[in-house]
Amino acid sequence: MNLFRISTWTLRRRVAALCLAAGIVLGALGGVAALTAANSNEHVDTLVDRTGPMRTASESLTTAFVDQETGIRGYAISGRDANLKPYTDGLAAQTDLIAQIDRLLGPDGDPGARAALAEVQQRADAWRSAVALPVIDAVRTDGPDAAQAIIDAASTSRFDALRAAVGELQQQILALRQRSVEAVRQSSSTLVGVMIAAAVIIILAGGALLLLLDRLVSRPVVELAEQVRGVADGDFDRHISSRGSPDLRRLAADIDGMRRQIAAELGEVRAARSQVEWVNGQLKVQTEELTRSNRDLEQFAYVASHDLQEPLRKVASFCQLLQRRYAGQLDERADQYIAFAVDGAQRMQRLINDLLAFSRIGRLTAGFTDVDLNRVLTEVSSQLETRAGPDAEITWSDLPTVEGEEPLLTTLFVNLIGNSLKFRRPDVPPMIEIRGELVGDEWQINVRDNGIGIEPEFADKVFVIFQRLHARDAYEGTGIGLAIVKKIVEYHGGRIWLDLDVAEGTSINFTLPLLAGISSPEPLKEVTA
Q1: What's the pTM value of the predicted model, to 2 decimals?
Q2: Which residue, among 357, 369, 374, has the nearest Cα to 411 in the 3D structure?
Q3: 474-511 pLDDT, tens per residue?
Q4: Which residues pair with 497 in a beta bridge?
Q5: Which of 44, 362, 380, 503 could be 491's S-S partner, Cβ–Cβ 3.0 to 4.6 Å?
Q6: Which CATH number does the domain housing residue 405 bear?
Q7: Are 339 and 327 in contact (CB under 8 A)?
Q8: Structural domain total, the chain
Q9: Is residue 283 part of a domain?
C-alpha cells in the first residue's frame, strides 16, 4: 500500500515519476510528429520530384506535337526530307516525354492523370495514323501535290482533340499538385499543433518540478542550513530536524547524530588540543635551541679556524727557520724531526684553511645571480692550466645558465676538475669531460675523467669531510675537496652522487634546480681547453 502513499516517496522517486509521465506524453507526441513529418515529406517529394517535372514535360509535349504538325505540313508543301526533321524530332521527344510522365506517375499514380496520359497517347496515334503517315507515303509515292491534297481534305479536328487531351493531362497534373500542396499545409499545421502541445507539456512539467523542488528541497534545505549554522556557532545542544522529503529527513537525522557525536567528543578534543599546544611549545623551544646550537657551532668552527692561524703560523715559521739555519749542523735524526715538524705545521695550516672555507659556505653570501657555467669553466680551465699540463684535455658542452653564486660554483668545478687532474693514471694524458642535460625540473651536470677511478665500496665515503682513500705520501690534499663540493651543491638546492656505471675513470653527477625565469637553452658547441 505504500506505493500509493506519495508522502513516503523519496525525492528521486517523485522526480522520476514526473519525468516518466512527461516522457510518455512527449513520446506519444513525438510519434505523431514523426508520422506527420513522414507524410509531409512524401507529399513534398511529390511536389518537388514528380508534379514539377510532369508539368514541364506536359508543356514540352505540346511543343512536340506542334513540331510534328509543322514538319508534316512543310514536308507536304516542299517534298524535301529536310523539312520532315521537325516531325521526326517531335516524335522522338513525344516518346521520351510520355515515358517520363509515365515513370513519374508510377504504378500507383493518380488514376485521373494516368487516364489523361493514355488519352493523349491514343489521340496522338490516331492523328499520326490518319494524317502524318498518309502524307509521308503520298509524298514518297505521288509527290507533294498528292500530299497537299490529303492535308486539304483532312480535318483539324483530330489535332484539336490531341491538343485538348494534352490540356486535360495538364489539368490532372495541376490537380495532383494542388492536392499535394493541401496535404503539406495540413501536415505543417499538425506539426505546429504537436510542437505547441509539447511546449505546453514541458512548461507544465518544469513548473511542477520547480514547485516540487521548492517544497521538498529548497525551503527545507534553507531551514536545515540555519540549524546547522546555529550548531556551527557553538549551540551544540540544538536539535536538528527537517520537514522536507524522506531523503532530507534522513539527512537531518544523520547530521543530528553527528552533532551529538561532536558534542560528546568536544571535551576530549579540547584536552587533546591543550596537549598538542604544549608539545608544539616544547618543539618550538627545541627548534630554537637547535638553531642556536648550529649557529654557535658554525661560529666556533670559524673562530677556532681563524684563531688557530696565528700561533700555527709562528710554529711553522720557526720550524722552517730552524730547518734553514741549522740544517746539517745537527745530527741526521734532528734534521728529520725538524722536517716532520715543518710538514705537520704545513698540513695543519692546510686543514685549518680548508675547514675555514667549509664553514663559510652558505654563511657568507652575496646573493644568487644568473651564472653562465660555460664562462665558469673557461675561468676554471685558466686557473688549472699549470696543474693540467700541456697533455691534459678538458672539454664541455651543453652547459646551461643557472641561478647561484658564481664564486661557489667556480670552487665546485675547481675541486672536481682538480681531483681528476690529481688522480690521473700514470703515463696516460688526463681527459676530463663536463656535460649538462635537462632532467625534469632540474639540470644534471656530469663530470667524467679517465683517471684511476673510485671503488664502489667507497661511493658513500668520498663526500665525508677529511675522508681520504689513499695514503698522504701517495696523493697530496686534506680530503675535504668533495665534502666542500657536496655542501656547495646542497646549498644550491641540488644533489650529488657517484656514477658507478662507468668502465674506467670517475664519473660524478650533481643537479642544480631549474629556477623560475630560467629557460632551457639551445645546445651549445663543444668547447675544448
Answers
A1: 0.42
A2: 357
A3: 445 556 778 888 888 888 889 988 888 887 888 889 99
A4: 509
A5: 362
A6: 3.30.565.10
A7: no
A8: 2
A9: no
